[in-house]
Amino acid sequence: MAFIGNFALLLAFALSVYCFGAGVLALLSPDEPNSQRLSETARRAGIVVFGAVFLAAVALVVSAFRDDFTIAYIFHHSNRDLPTPYKFATLWSGQEGSILFWCLLLSAYAFVLRLRYKTDPRLFAYASVVVAGVQIFFLALVNFAANPFGLLEGPLRPDGSGLNPLLQYPEMVIHPPMLYMGYVGFTVPFAFALGALIMKYPGEKWIHITRRWTMVTWGFLTCGIFLGSHWAYSVLGWGGYWGWDPVENASLMPWLVGTAFLHSVMMQEKRGMLKVWNMWLVFACFWLAILGTFLTRSGIISSVHAFAQSSIGSWFAWFLGITFAVFVFFFVLNHKHLRSDNKLEGMISRESSFLFNNLLFLLLTLDVLWGTWFPKISELVQGNKVTVGAPFYNRVAIPVALILLLLTALGPLLAWRKTSLESLKRNFTWPFTVALIIALFVMLTPTSWGSIFGLKPWHDVSYFYSLMTIFLSALVAFTVGSEFYRGGRVIAEKTGQGMFASMVQLTHRNTRRYGGYIVHFGVVLVMIGFSGSALNQDKEAELGYGDHMQIGSYDLVCRSYTQDDNANQETEWALMDVYQNGQLVRTMTPQRIFYKASQQASTKPDIDQGFKEDLYLVYEGQNDKGQPVIKAHLNPMVIWIWIGAWVMIIGTGLALVENAPVPVTVRVPRMMEHAAPVAGD
Amino acid sequence: MILGIVCAVLITAASLFYIFYLPGELYLGPEKTRASYLRERKDVVYENLRDLNFEYRAGKVPDTDYQSLKANLQDEAAGLLAEIAQLESGAIPAPRKARS
Asked: Domain limits of chain A?
């Protein structure tokens, strides 16, 4: 298998080099008689690259299933008793395998791109060459710097070291692929953007193509980030879902810039504005995705999620430098092609709301970038590493997120070009009033109704933020709801259909807009989930048989504690009875697992999830008497984060659906007699 | 090992055959021209008009705003149509086909 794997990787590398070289030659001499043939061979070579990388990936997975410990990577990341799903996860659980997995996903994206070349053959030829350039880098890495098929030195071992215990969790089988599909996918919009810049592509069609790819990529990254958060919450046992860890930040930065791009791209499509800005945003998405990979793999910044320190960091540093230089070169060369067709006409308009939205996303990205790199920067400047924590990020992130929520509420109410204050007042009054009533209700209701009620903003700034989040979330929910209602009513009046059917038809007529609104609604739910963190509680106790501990309205009683043993792991756990108002409501079993092959321990918290709050128990270890040390967390509203994430993903999927045709005529210019009928309202 | 070498040779041969054997015509697509760019732009302006009409009927845009925005968009569409008409008085390039 090692031979087949190595052969497939070398073949893929050679074909990528051909795809790039032949593609560049064909584009440089378009009038040569054979240039189209050369371009076609380049495209086909790119298609075969996918087959070759797929073969290499299959070879590695088969080696994991065959327990082929002659391959060093399999020895270090698998063992004989590893459950079947985790044998698949071996592919991305280590440095070398995950780079091969990156190559596989990039080749798969490139494969689809090269198959769909008929959309615009010349633009796709440019994009294919750019993607081939990126493929050369990753395939060089996997062939010459981080080869997953390297053989183990010394005598053959009877069993492997096993998979990292933290990765032995069901979500870990899907979280990395989702995150990687997000990271890798940004290569495609970047390739189209750079291609369009190099060829001075006339018009905005390239951005229409790019937007769809960006939405797919953004959807995967969203999915990956939330799966990662859920994994951290369910496995790491610290009671939280986001720790502002450098590797978490690495995934957040391209997501933030990608979100900004998905908004600003509408200005380019509709008004021919922000062309330079969008070009840089697409580049920043790609560059930050590579930077994130560099952070995870170089060992330059320590993180619980990072791979061990390795020499491939310098490869990434060079690649980041080269891509930046190439992009800047072509930007300087062709920037005049990116002149805006229109200017901002009014400060109260859809355009200005997108502009502010973009500036805020950029501010947030810079905050995260600065905080992530601060330990390294402080080490270079002062000689000692200073790490920044959640308060540093929250100081900027929370106010910015609140203003973004306000813009999310305002945006749909603003017209393109300009909006009068009268129009704003007319559309904004009742959602604002209802949201205010809800916020006052939450503030004035007694705390006995639940931990989220009775928030007094003057007691603590975090309560103020939570209350503002609830107010603004309600505002967004009502403005989004009013958009569906108003649109549905127009269709209902015209067709005589019921309101729900009209709203479905409305969504189908403009999936991008209404899918986007559903994403906004998902964001609202996520924000409500975040707002609960201001009210988190935790307690720790050493518990013998029958001992109690109290947290919130829960009384926890240690019924027993014991241990278990099987071929893969040893488990210690406590049996905790949970009482509420004197009634037994649940029995929970927080665990601590010791994995034999890797000789590593991991906690497995037990979480009682509810719509109001989560009861989260962690088995911290044993005290001197052999009794369990239990840490209990009470985390309000967390479930809304996961529900919101699902809504966001459903909205993204909906936004990707083609619009239904709308057969209506609009009379357009006064001065043109032959104005054609167009799809209208 | 021998089986591996045989597989490698076969895979390489099949790949080279697929890459370099190009029978028939190659699809090159239509040439991107100023006129095709203007037609794309015209479609966008029409779509903007459609959105504006819909928002007006939904009660989101007051009458004064609607009239002014509609006039702006109609002027933009008129300009585009005029330029397209001017360009179409010449020949519009047909989709290109090249023989391999």
From this structure: 404-534+640-655, 536-636
